[in-house]
Amino acid sequence: MTALRMRARDFLTDDELIAVRQRMTWKGIALIAHAWALILGAIALVAWWPNPLTYLLAVAIIGSRQLGLAILMHDGAHGCLSADEKTNLFLSQWFCAYPTFAETRSYRRYHLQHHARTQQEDDPDLVLSAPFPITRLSYRRKFFRDITGQTGYQQRRAQLLNALGPSEWPLSRRAEHFWAKLGPQCVANAVLFAGLAAAGVWWAYPLLWLVPLLTWMMVITRIRNIAEHAVVPDSSDPLRNTRTTRANFLERLFIAPYYVNYHLEHHLLFYVPCYNLPRVHRILSRSRYADRMEVQPGYSAVLRLATARPDREDRPGQLVNSARRSRAGAKVNADQNAGGF
């Protein structure tokens, strides 16, 4: 089956299309700077006032900004951080992708297949949405694996093993393969560690960079994946095979940074920078297509839809299947930098 398509001029005037397509380098830089400012501010808060509450708050803020960096990397994969491709790739790679152990170009090759085949049988991201709806018990197990770092560990382990290559390769070939897969990421993280150490807070790298990356970022990445494509009404309708989720201030701070909740609009116009998606949403909401759009009032509403199967249908065998899907998803995510969007 092939999904239907919509043309931008079905709901935008020429002037509106020109306006929303405009890519401003300073805006891309400003969003990246905002993410890093919140990260460094959260680290400074714990260094200044160390206690369990400030630490947990910092983990949640930093984890959400790590997802924010992944979102901005995703914008870079679509060429939206800057109109100049060299600047776009530099910003996306060194300030967004590499610090979170991702890579823009490989993500771009994989991700464009998702846009071309959204919710179809050959959509590479279908594994992220196909299992839903699930039971609340199943989601609790997934949440526990995410928040305790098990999911993040599996993803990073798969990524490391992939970068090391087959054990039968000679050392020189394995080293070359590792550098191609993870070299710049290691450099970026070494620079981050050195900077924190120079500031006298070397402990912030393991406790306030790696811990959020392996825990809270995994929790909200799963929520984001669910919100974008799980339990959508019509896999072939571009207004209903993905979803926009309204986000309040706290959801934008801790779960859905940098306009990632406007996913329906992004799929319709994937060349539009994230900061222009709210404008696209307003235009669509005033159009004749407004009633067809799949929009949910918040992330709690989406999770209720995604966990609508009765708990009595939860079976022991589902634990095995869930684990298999988790491992498959971990490999996909490790190889393709977390998929989705």
Short description:
The chain crosses the membrane at residues 29-49, 202-220. With 341 residues, this protein is mainly alpha-helical. The chain contains 16 helices and two strands.
Low-confidence stretches: 322-338
Number of strands: 2
| Separation of the first and last Cα atoms | 22 Å
Number of helices: 16
The fraction of residues assigned to DSSP E strands is under 5%
Structural class: mainly alpha
Number of domains: 1
Radius of gyration: 20 Å
Summed over residues and divided by their number, the pLDDT gives a mean of 91
Helix content: 55-70%
Overall 3D shape: globular
The string of secondary-structure elements, in order, is HHHHHHHHHHHEHHHEHH
Strand line-up in the sheet with most strands: 1-2
Described by strand count, sense and barrel closure, the largest sheet is:
2 strands, parallel
GO biological process, one term: lipid biosynthetic process
Domain Fatty acid desaturase: 51-287
Keywords: Membrane, Transmembrane, Transmembrane helix
GO molecular function: oxidoreductase activity, acting on paired donors, with oxidation of a pair of donors resulting in the reduction of molecular oxygen to two molecules of water
